[in-house]
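Agenda item 2: fe (ii) ion complex prediction
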Amino acid sequence: MELVEKVGTIQEEHLKSFEEKIERGDAIEPRDHMPESYRKHLMRQMSQHAHSEVIGMQPEGNWITRAPSLRAKQILLAKIQDEGGHGLYLYSAAETLGITRTEMIEQLHSGKAKYSNIFNYPALTWADIGAIGWLVDGAAIVNQVSLQRTSYGPYSRAMVRICKEESFHQRQGYEIMANMMKGTKDQQAMAQDAMNRWWWPSLMMFGPHDSESPHTGDAFKWKIKRASNDELRQKFIDKTVQQAEVIGLTIPDADLKWNEAKNCYDHGAINWEEFHRVIAGNGPCNKQRMAHHKKVHAEGAWVREAAEAYRLKKGQ
Amino acid sequence: MTEQQALYKYCLRLGDNALIQSYRLSEWCSNAPILEEDLALTNFALDMTGRAQALLSYAGKLDGNNKTDDDLAYKRGERDFYNLLITEQPNGGFAHTIARLLYTSTFEYFFYTELLHSADATLAAIAAKTIKEIKYHKAHATDWVLRLGDGTEESHYRMQQGIDSLWMFTGEMFETGEADALLRDKNIAVDLGAVKSKWQASIAAVLAEATLALPKDEYMQTGSLQGVHTEYLGHILTEMQYLQRAYPEAIW
Ligand SMILES: [Fe+2]
Ligand SMILES: [Fe+2]
Ligand SMILES: [Fe+2]
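Presented output:
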């Protein structure tokens, strides 16, 4: 009994020092004590973020061989490499929580770990490469800028580094759209079509309305999450609507209008039925994305085994 | 053939080698056995696209018809491409791609080291930029050949298969035509005979260290110097040139 009491007291002290750190706004570092649910929450969020970077390479990779100019091909190749690099960086950051990349990939394959829903939509035309950079990376930046102040040190530092590159991606995507809108009728139609298909899924990237979203309480209390879904979504809409207008694209939302009193845009209803359906696995590309990742991983097993065998043989 | 025409063709061959190999390597995006390798192979593709751009821009200036690098990449037909047949072969498995990268990067390493001394200042400058990248490609390919050759029984078998099946396309790397002869006289082109002996010695050494057998010299397939390719090139161009062909008025 005595020992149990002692352990209990130590745990209470640890929790108290953790909460004080959070209160002061200090970063939590890998060696610091943290409640198990804090660790679990971060593991889930950071591995999901890493998987998103990697799965996101698939829709964009779909256009590398068809990029319409040497310059466009170079920009796209570099962009996708950045995303893969973000994946690597986030996997390492998540590993500081006591999970390996191999375990995270197993969780992805078993369905325990998720990736961003947006990558379950297909990249159908070249304009989609513009729309993904501009809207998808644009939405990701809004979220990631706020995560620069997240309480877990390795995650926050990862966000600072990643945000710099994401804003390049966003500008490059916008440039593709702007060029197409200055181009032929076919190009303009292609750009507007991409806009129509990517706008709503981009808004869904911020997750359910604040009134509906689970997990929010702890995430806010622990300063993992620094702004609400609706706040972030609003920020994205307000900056993007103007960008669309400048190049002559129409936002596919008849209810979108400026709200003078609130000093921001009001938007129409989001199709939450679609959101939940795609998250549940019934989007246009869910099966394709996962099947591809699993197939490539399985096909590469002999290479990883050989590298390991060689390493052991050479005593490296 | 004038010197200018010879130089035009020489640049097209080098540019096409970079362009078509970059196409094949970029197909590895989201397909490599580990994420690090995905990034490495597509990064080489990026290097090669840059090299293709430099060489095709230069070719466009020599042609005298104000063609751009993109005109030459996206609006030429398959009989006017001069890339080596090895560059257009399908990726196959990872060992197959690594075997190709060993052959080509070793060739390019000795080739561009010579081209640094070209009497043509533009080619020498392109060589100076690209040689740093090629060194890295060669080191990477060599590293994997050693690991796979001397890794597991399975990887040894696959690596040997890749080495053997691409061997018949290596003879072409040292083939010379009218343009080479003309440009050799002006100290513009590289002496491929000298490159060949260095290449052979280097490949033999790497394969020996990797416990792999050096293939025997048998039939060597050629044709690309005359723009005669394997069936694969047409499919590459169909995909690569699709937007430029479908929307000729568009600027991207
Ligand atoms: Fe990213
Ligand atoms: Fe991201
Ligand atoms: Fe990005």
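Discussion summary: The first strand of chain A starts at residue 257 and ends at 259.
Owner for follow-up: CH.
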